[in-house]
Write a structure and sequence with these properties.
By secondary structure, this protein is mainly alpha-helical. It folds into 2 domains: 43 residues; 92 residues, no CATH class. Helices cover 65% and strands 0% of the residues. Helix 5 packs across helix 6. It is globular.
Length: 152
C-alpha cells in the first residue's frame, strides 16, 4: 500500500478543515491497519538472507556504538524486552503457536521460555554473528531453525 501526502502552504480558514484532516488521517491509519491484519499474516517476516554472511551495508563503528549503548542500558532494555514478551501472550496469532509447540503449558514454562529468549537476545547484542563458532552465531542459527520449523 502506497500513501502519497501532498503538503500545502495554505492555512485553514477555520477549525472544520483541521478536523477533516484528522479524520482523513484516521481513516488512512484504519485502512493501513486493516491491510496489515489481513495481509500481514501471510508473510513470515524472513527476508531470506543468509544469517552467517555479513551484509555489505554493515557499519562496524555504528554496531560498536550500539553495543556500548546496550551495555550502559542493560537493565532498561531487558526490562522492555521482557514486557514485550509478556504482552505477546495477549496477541492471539502469537499465543497459538506458543501453545502449539507444547513448550509453554504453564506460566512457569512460559517464564523459562522467555528467559531463554532473553539469553539469546543478550548474545545477539554482545556477540559477533560473523565469527565462526561464536555463541552469537550459534544462537542465531538455532533460533532461525526453531522459527523455520514453526512455519513448515
Amino acid at each position: 500500500m502506497e500513501v502519497t501526502v501532498e503538503l500545502s502552504t495554505e492555512r485553514p480558514n477555520d477549525n472544520d478543515s483541521v478536523i477533516d484532516l484528522e479524520e482523513d488521517e484516521d481513516s488512512l491509519a484504519q485502512s493501513y491497519l486493516l491491510t496489515l491484519k489481513s495481509e500481514g499474516s501471510l508473510h513470515t517476516g524472513d527476508n531470506d538472507s543468509d544469517p552467517i554472511v555479513e551484509p555489505e551495508w554493515l557499519d562496524h563503528a555504528k554496531l560498536d556504538r550500539a553495543r556500548q549503548l546496550f551495555k550502559r542500558n542493560l537493565f532498561g532494555l531487558f526490562f522492555n524486552h521482557l514486557c514485550g514478551l509478556v504482552l505477546l501472550v495477549y496477541v492471539d496469532t502469537i499465543l497459538k503457536p506458543l501453545l502449539y509447540t507444547r513448550n509453554s503449558r504453564s506460566v512457569a514454562q512460559l517464564f523459562r521460555r522467555y528467559l531463554s529468549t532473553l539469553s539469546h537476545i543478550k548474545l545477539w547484542y554482545d556477540g559477533d554473528f560473523w565469527t565462526k563458532d561464536s555463541p552469537a552465531r550459534q544462537s542465531i542459527l538455532q533460533v532461525s531453525i526453531l522459527i523455520y520449523n514453526l512455519f513448515i
